Amino acid sequence: MIEAHAGGSGPMSHSGESIAVGSSETFEDFYAREFPAVVGLAYALSGSRSGSEDLAQEAFLVALREWNRVAGFGRPDVWVRRVVANLSMSTLRRRYAEAKALGRLSQRTQTALPELSPEDAEFWAAVRSLPRRQAQVIALHYLEDRSVAEIALILGTAGGTVKKHLHEGRRSLGRRLQLDEEDDV
Asked: Is 102 among the domain residues?
């Protein structure tokens, strides 16, 4: 903790060292001296060990970017603590807003999926048993009625590759579902 000397000769660090106000202290020295105490303050404000380290690091990054200006302050230690206090309040507000949004989302009713007929359930079970890429291509083509070009774009692959997976997936499904060649998959 930084305190003023009883005699009024200037601030002292949490370890009892005298700090010359307006001194030409380097950022590295300032950081080494103040970081543990600033993390402690951030922990007290946030209640999170990892969050407190993040808050302290963020405050010291701001101090580093502005060091020429901050070093000239009478009490850069007070300034960095104010930054941590402000950041922790912003974090708490953000967490509160996120919690409210999640609460609103959880209260929404889930979209009911239609019941599948036994044939449809068997078909989609067979699709899920295909190799991953074939299943993706089949689902996008039949469920969403996507073109080969759209599927290629969605999956980040060539159109020829989509056609290959569509063909192989149809053939595998035909075998698994014991469909005749003329039956439409």
From this structure: yes
The domain boundary, picked from 107, 134, 159, lies at 107
For residues 13 and 93, membership in a common domain is answered with: yes
Alpha helices in 66-158 (DSSP H): 67-70, 76-107, 118-128, 132-142, 148-155
Length of the chain: 185
**Residues whose CB falls within 8 Å of the CB of residue 51, separated by 6 or more in sequence, listed in order:** 42, 91
> How many structural domains does the chain have?
2
**Which of these, 22, 25, 3, 20, lies nearest to 12 by C-alpha position?**
3
pTM surpassing 0.70? no
Query: How far is residue 19's CA from residue 13's CA, in Å, rounded to a whole number?
Result: 7
147: domain CATH number is 1.10.10.10
CA 118 to CA 178: how far, in whole Å?
A: 15
Per-residue pLDDT of the chain (185 residues; tens, 9 = 90+): 333 333 333 344 444 443 444 467 899 999 999 999 999 999 998 888 888 999 999 999 999 999 999 999 989 999 999 999 999 988 888 888 888 888 888 777 666 666 777 778 888 888 889 998 999 999 899 888 899 999 999 999 999 999 999 999 999 998 988 875 555 55
